[in-house]
Amino acid sequence: MMTRELHPVLLPRALPEAPAARATGRPGGRWLVPLLAVVLLAQMAVAMVTTAVRQTPTIDEPVYVATATDYLRVHEVRLNPEHPPLGKLVIAAGVAVADPHHDPSFAGDQGRVGRHLLYESGNDPWRVMLWARLPVIALTLAFGLVVLAFARELVGPAGGLVALALYAFSPDVIAHGSLATLDVPTAGFLLTSVWLLWRARRRPHLYVPLAGLAAGAALATKMSALAAVPVLLALAAWSVWCHGSRDRRRALTRAVAAAAVVAVCAIAVVWVSYLVVDPRLRWTPRQHVPVVHGLRAVLVDLMPFPESYRDGMRVQFGFENHPWQGFLFGRLYTGSLWYYLPAALVVKTPLGMLALWAAGAVAVVAVRRLRPAAPYLLVPTAVLLGAAMTGSRDFGTRYAVFVPMFLAVAAGSLLAVRWRWAGAAAGALVLFVAVSSVRTFPFYLPYSNEAFGGPARTHLRLHDSNVDWGQDLGRLADRLRERYPGERVWLVYKGSGVPSYYGIEAADPRRVPAGEVRGLLVVSDSSVAKATGRLAELIDSSRPIDQVGHSITIYRR
pLDDT band for position 29 (50/70/90)? Predict the structure, then answer.
């Protein structure tokens, strides 16, 4: 039992009383933590790179890659205004190496521009996509170091390793960290900002501005980060208040100033991201920008960002007004369900990870010396999840990929509990997580845990980026060539890839009489989940004979 309280100013340091921290005092122990961290990140890198090499473009990736190429060649914000430039500038670092042929005069919506770049311009889509994905993979690995550092400062080296292991084996983080998309970068920048605000309790003059820059990076990557702004400003003020002065008026002034510094730095990063693309800030919309009304209109007008950012917000609000279809536990519905994301997370998170998240969250609140960290770990997670749950697009846990990041840090806190078997229990659960994650390799997108039948049965409960995001078109081509050469193929594919490029000669079964559909009926599992009318009749009258990547089903007719 502890006999004294720790002063709040000292809390950001690793807790010297933790048994895990004392363990590193053994001879050679100081090398053990870095070595294990390298091993964990190395296996994560192998998993992500291997996945990136084998997957064809997912639905969103061609748009981001084409936009990144446009930034490099045209130096103007013309495509994809609904997402700010920074994440696509990260992707552009890899695209610059691939150096694809680009036709800036090609007319069409951003989806057609992406397909034209990858499949109709003489480029190798495998090479272009791999280089586009590598910067995001590197960034994902860097965020693992943030997870390690944050948890280590809370409970010592062993807690840091537990947190890093959960992060490195998270199927969701691996799946989306290996794609040229924006979800993992946004969540990682938010976690970095919160970690820096935690450190600001000791050195506010250094870490408050850095936290503002990280927050700005999140805002300049994806607009969903706006939901975190009030929390980040409050944490900035709280951190400086805790650093504090005995003069309450002076402490309050410093706290308000800290929040202002975070806001100014964040705004500056957003502006800089647009100026890097186009110093003249030209903006002529190439797609319809909806008109918004009421509080949304007021919010957009108040944003201190470039006009293209604010038009992007209008586009996002337009998406929110669309009646999208969802699929959960076999039920197809129109609109959104408030409990969709929590339910999807329960399906797609390893069971050991769920247990460690819950135990870690309880530990952060119950252990007195960890309670100051609760607002930094639990409040941002709750606010971001609450905001995501109100959205209209029930498309996948990628909208909540911040959860495995923040709660990995919280899970490391379990080692601060004064229970004899805490360390052994945490180690056993981490091993359970690792086994579950490795078993799904390399099919991380359709992962579901053992309680729900594993990745082979995810399509019975979820759809879209939870299962089938167009990633297995290349695998389908290989399967048809190896097992079904010369057979007639009827294809209903959900994705951005071009089947003919991969050698798949197929017709759409929905455009001919049902009696003519004979041979192989190949359907993306998201299309199976949403099948109605003619397609549903064709599927019901066919016999499933094969599955590709746990995302595409082959039927015999």
Answer: low
pLDDT tens digit sequence for 296-312 = 999 999 999 999 999 99
> Is the dihedral angle over the CA atoms 484, 489, 495, 497 positive or is it negative?
positive
Q: Give the tens place of pLDDT for each residue, 178-229.
A: 999 999 999 999 999 999 999 999 999 999 999 999 999 999 999 999 999 9
Contacts of 387 (CB under 8 A, 6+ apart): 224, 227
Distance of CA 43 to the CA centre of its chain: 19
Q: What is the CA radius of gyration of the chain?
A: 24
Q: Retrieve residue 191's tokens.
A: 């976690």
State the Cα–Cα distance between residues 394 and 498, nearest whole angstrom: 26
Tell me 518's DSSP state. Answer: -
Q: Give mean pLDDT, residues 129-144.
A: 98
Q: How many CB atoms lie within 10 A of CB 94?
A: 22
Neighbours of 413 (CB within 10 A): 28
Structure tokens at 536: 């549903």
DSSP tag of 10: G
pTM of the predicted structure, to 2 decimals: 0.93
Strands 520-524 and 489-492: parallel
Give the whole-angstrom CA distance, residue 122 versus residue 137: 26
Query: Cα dihedral sign for 87, 92, 97, 99?
Result: positive
Closest CA to 467 of 410, 526, 539, 518: 526
Nearest-angstrom CA–CA distance, 289 and 117: 24
Compute the 3-state secondary structure of the chain and give helix, strand, coil in percent, each to the nearest 5. 65, 5, 30
CB 381 within 8 A of CB 403: yes
For residue 31 the two structure tokens come to 């090398």
Of 193, 262, 266, the residue nearest 223 (C-alpha) = 266
Strand partners for 553: 523, 547
Helix 351-366, helix 157-168: angle, nearest 10: 140
Query: Which whole-number Å values give the CA distances from 283 to 71, 86, 275, 307, 419, in the listed order?
Result: 13, 17, 12, 8, 60
- Which residues, in sequence order, are CB contacts of 165 under 8 Å at separation 6+? 40, 430, 433, 434
Instruction: Residue 198: name the closest of 379, 414, 4 by CA.
Output: 379
| DSSP conformation letters of 230-283 | HHHHHHHHHHHHHH--S-HHHHHHHHHHHHHHHHHHHHHHHHHHHHHH-TT---
Distances (CA, A) of 155 to 9, 14, 23, 373: 16, 6, 12, 11
What SS3 string covers 335-393?
CCCCCHHHHHHHHHCCHHHHHHHHHHHHHHHHCHHHHHHHHHHHHHHHHHHHHHHCCCC
